[in-house]
Amino acid sequence: MKMGQAIATPPAVEKSVFDIKNLNLWYGKNLALKDIDFTIYNNEITAIIGPSGCGKSTFIKTLNLMIQNIPGVRMSGEINYEHTNLLNDRVDLVDLRKKVGMVFQKANPFPKSIYENVAYGPKIHGVKKKGKLDEIVERSLRDVFLWDEVKDRLNTSALGLSGGQQQRLCIARAIATKPDVILMDEPTSALDPISTIKIEELALELKKNYSIVMVTHNMQQAARVSDRTAFFLMGELIEYDQTSKIFSAPSDKRTEDYVTGRFG
Ligand SMILES: Nc1ncnc2c1ncn2[C@@H]1O[C@H](COP(=O)(O)OP(=O)(O)OP(=O)(O)O)[C@@H](O)[C@H]1O
């Protein structure tokens, strides 16, 4: 190397968290996911978009195997997570769902106190000491920017919170067990615009420590928060790329038609 020559910074290595290959999923005889190849990367927000019925919810529910609760579901292919193919290897579902947490469209806090909602997961996973639980509850509620709003009413019912607060509580409940991945299935579709913005800001903050996969009907939301966007159509993954590319210069005409509002 010559004197004064700059040392090139090697490109950051993108680490994947899920590596999905040839995933097919049937509800009875109906093929709902067709040959999906999909890599989900660490510390990113991955948005899943597409018209109603294209398979977004089905896909996201394969990642923590929640889909298996539905009778008649059959899958083939590979869902590789932490060197394990979730479809072939024996998987401890309690452990998987600790690592791959989920938040739903409609906030679904347990009919218990705010404190108990957050402490629930850690207790199941063996944390018994009150001091440790207190610490986890406070940290989780701080991480979702809810602590200051609820610290004086931790022992009151979670059902007394507003919709937006309930959704942040559900995210706190998901992160209390220190997952790797948080799945969000239309997390803001039942919320007002201010609560929606709060959840989006929260997702941007959380991706520093977690990987987030977010199903959304709202294309502006995908464009605002996600690093990569996947466009599904009739069970197929049509295009998956950097979000900026999907919204400004998609490769597939069908993606372009969808993101420009020509159908959907
Ligand atoms: N429990 C089920 N049993 C049978 N078919 C189902 C079931 N759930 C979904 N499907 C079918 O699978 C396909 C994909 O549905 P899915 O709910 O994944 O779509 P989606 O993109 O999430 O739709 P939406 O945006 O309306 O929520 C649809 O044809 C749907 O009818």
Automatic annotation (TrEMBL):
One Pfam family per UniProt: ABC_tran
UniProt keyword list: ATP-binding, Nucleotide-binding, Transport
Domain annotation ABC transporter: ranges: 18-259
GO molecular function ontology, one term from the record: ATP binding
PANTHER family in UniProt: ABC TRANSPORTER I FAMILY MEMBER 17 (PTHR43423)
Protein name: Phosphate ABC transporter ATP-binding protein PstB
Species name: Fictibacillus fluitans
